[in-house]
Structures are given as structure tokens and as C-alpha cells.
Please model this.
Amino acid sequence: MNNWPRNLAPLPDPEIVIAPEITESECRHCGTGVAGLDGRYACGVCGWVNDHSEGHHPLPPAKADTDFPGNGRNGGNARNRLR
Model:
């Protein structure tokens, strides 16, 4: 005898989440090995930074940042920001 309920609704499809990927490259200015997230790099030796548009995915809007003042997630409190 099977006691499993017969009329179960199917589960919804899971939400697709794109996690950041750690990527590595060479600094275009001094040749130092650099690591970054999704193809966005900054060199700690010479200060070179590649353009944000060169990343693998578009950046989220500023309002998606949990520290964005007034977005309701932190009550507009931005104490951790530099002044």
C-alpha cells in the first residue's frame, strides 16, 4: 500500500542566480598577475584598472546595492560610507 499523496503540484523552476567568478589576467600596464571578479581587474602595484564595460556580465544598478542610501533595505543609513 502506498501512502504517498497523489495530487501534488509540480515545484516551480528554481531562480537562476549568476554567481561572480574569480578570473585572472595580467596587468596591461606593468604585467603583474591580477585577479578580479567577472573580468574586472585592478592592479595593486601600478594602479591600473580596466574599464567596467570589459566585464563578463553587466553591472547591477546602484540601487541594487544594499548600502545605497534610502533604498529601504538599511533604512537609508549609510554609516559605513566614507565621508
In short: The mean pLDDT is 82.
